[in-house]
């Protein structure tokens, strides 16, 4: 035991005194060695910063030190070797079948392992796989499709398709509406080389009729289920906001009705002149079934009350087999603009020009419309076909007399769809765009004749006016008054008849 040096060395005993004396005798040598080591370490920097003084002697010394330490670490690193294990025993075929029959891998993974349960004496091989007793399908009639093609795609045999069409052909004269759902059940077939028979078919033939076909005693029979339909026209009124289209749609008008309304109004006034605060009035055909399904028909009435400018009251009416729009006074007006007998852009105007084939300047007696090959060509107004056939540089050519000394000509057709002496109406297809005759590409050369001489087609506009009178005018005004008195929105006639109709549409 040692005591503090303040108490004196003699108090520590003989042993302490001897140790202190020897320590004092040996202390100068290690102290000199440490001093020299500190002086050498200050002069030689063993671990310099390799990011500074690059290329100097000190930097290379630090680099060698780094490499040396890395080499020593790799040299002294322990070696890792795999530990050998005893291989598993090889099972015989009998032992493997026994283990395979007891394992659950095929059951757990749905036979993804490719192995099967071991068979027993009770297992017998099947001569053929069993079939389902019936197959339930849901098909749908596509656009530009027929009921027969939809049934054939679903797997119904040709004989059953013919039977179905014979039973329901009278109920779908106009075809089945695209998107109609078909609920089909195919039964058990007699043999594998024969198609499955149609056991049941249910679909919506029309808005007011559902049809269900079932097989009884090997024969198909149809059961027709009538559906009540309310065909009261739909009336929508409102005030024009920043857009007449958005205002009418917000009021509940169907898109088809709004588009037809704008087309009718545009023939009377400039749509850009319709201002906020004007009131619109729309009446359209609207059929509503008690199941909630609806069909939007044609526009019947278009009204527009303007704060400034002409107000509009237009009613669709059929006169002499032709449906036209008539004003409230009973005057109907149809305009036929002669500048668009085909859907395309005008590529060459009326007047002198250099002929692209003949190579010299001569009179271009019409206007050209660039259009795709095969595009339909329409008669610009009513008339009688005076000529249809080959006509020199015009190629396939049709000429129509319209009365009053006016006639129109249509050249370079690929195919003619009119015959001489035929009476045609405005918008009727009389041929198709081609490049026959003196032509460099598919287009329509359109001409207008006045008393046999060609004139600029853009300078003439046909206007046909019809006037109602007598009993027909009275019936027209009665129908107009009926639409004006029609309540706005839907009419819950189902509730009045004791049924539950769908919710009323918002105004």
Automatic annotation (TrEMBL):
Record bears the keyword Protease: yes
CDD domains hit by this protein: M23_peptidase (cd12797)
InterPro entries in the cross-refs: Cell_wall_metabolism_enzyme, Dup_hybrid_motif, M23ase_b-sheet_dom
The keyword Hydrolase belongs to this UniProt entry's keyword annotation: yes
Class of the enzyme per the UniProt entry, highest EC level: hydrolase
E.C. number(s) listed in UniProt: 3.4.24.-
Protein name: M23 family metallopeptidase
Species for this entry: Sphingobium olei
């Amino acid at each position: 035991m040692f005591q503090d040096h303040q108490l004196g060395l003699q108090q520590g005993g003989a042993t302490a005194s001897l140790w202190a004396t020897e320590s004092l005798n040996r202390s100068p040598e290690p102290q000199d060695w440490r001093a020299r080591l500190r002086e050498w370490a200050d002069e030689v920097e063993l671990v310099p910063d390799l990011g500074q003084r690059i290329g100097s002697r000190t930097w290379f010394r630090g680099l060698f030190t780094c490499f040396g330490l890395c080499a020593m670490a790799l040299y002294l690193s322990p070696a890792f070797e795999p530990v050998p294990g005893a291989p598993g025993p090889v099972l015989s075929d009998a032992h493997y079948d026994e283990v395979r029959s007891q394992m659950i891998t095929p059951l757990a993974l749905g036979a993804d392992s490719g192995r099967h349960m071991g068979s027993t004496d009770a297992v017998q091989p099947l001569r053929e796989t069993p079939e389902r007793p019936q197959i339930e399908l849901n098909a749908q009639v596509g656009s530009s499709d027929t009921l027969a093609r939809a049934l054939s795609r679903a797997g119904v045999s040709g004989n059953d398709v013919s039977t179905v069409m014979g039973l329901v052909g009278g109920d779908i004269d106009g075809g089945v509406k695209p998107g109609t759902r078909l609920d089909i059940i195919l039964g058990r077939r007699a043999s594998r080389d024969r198609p499955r028979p149609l056991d049941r078919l249910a679909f919506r033939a029309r808005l007011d009729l559902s049809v269900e076909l079932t097989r009884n005693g090997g024969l198909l029979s149809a059961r027709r289920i009538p559906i009540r339909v309310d065909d009261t026209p739909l009336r929508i009124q409102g005030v024009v906001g920043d857009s007449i289209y958005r205002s009418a749609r917000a009021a509940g008008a169907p898109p088809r009705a709004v588009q037809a309304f704008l087309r009718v109004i545009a023939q009377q006034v400039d749509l850009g002149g319709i201002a906020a605060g004007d009131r619109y009035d729309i009446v359209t055909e609207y059929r509503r079934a008690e199941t909630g399904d609806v069909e939007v028909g044609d526009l019947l009435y278009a009204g527009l009350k303007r704060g400034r400018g002409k107000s509009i009251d237009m009613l669709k009416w059929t006169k002499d087999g032709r449906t036209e729009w008539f004003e409230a006074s009973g005057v109907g007006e149809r305009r036929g603009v002669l500048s668009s007998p085909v859907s395309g852009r005008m590529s060459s105007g009326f007047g002198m020009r250099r002929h692209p084939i003949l190579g010299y300047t001569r009179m271009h007696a019409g206007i050209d419309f660039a259009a795709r090959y095969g595009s339909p060509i329409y008669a610009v107004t009513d008339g009688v076909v005076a000529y249809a056939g080959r006509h020199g540089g015009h190629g396939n050519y049709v000429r129509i007399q319209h009365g009053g000394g006016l006639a129109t000509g249509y050249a370079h057709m690929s195919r003619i769809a009119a015959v001489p002496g035929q009476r045609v109406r405005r918008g009727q297809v009389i041929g198709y765009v081609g490049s026959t005759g003196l032509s460099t590409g598919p287009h329509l050369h359109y001409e207008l004749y006045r008393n046999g001489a060609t004139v600029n087609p853009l300078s003439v506009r046909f206007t046909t006016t019809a006037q109602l009178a007598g009993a027909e005018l009275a019936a027209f005004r009665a129908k107009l008054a009926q639409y004006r008195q029609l309540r706005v929105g839907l009419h819950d006639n189902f509730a009045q008849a004791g049924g539950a109709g769908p919710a009323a549409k918002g105004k």
